# Entry
Amino acid sequence: MSSNSRRVLIYGGKGALGSACVHFFRQHNWV
# Structure
């Protein structure tokens, strides 16, 4: 889970990629 969290932080500031990652994680109730 820590690696996934790190990936979210890395992609979080990249606009479209960040949005896609956040959307994916929300679908799985991880955020």
User: Anything to note?
Assistant: The chain has one domain: 1-31. Residues 1-31 form one domain. The mean pLDDT is 66.
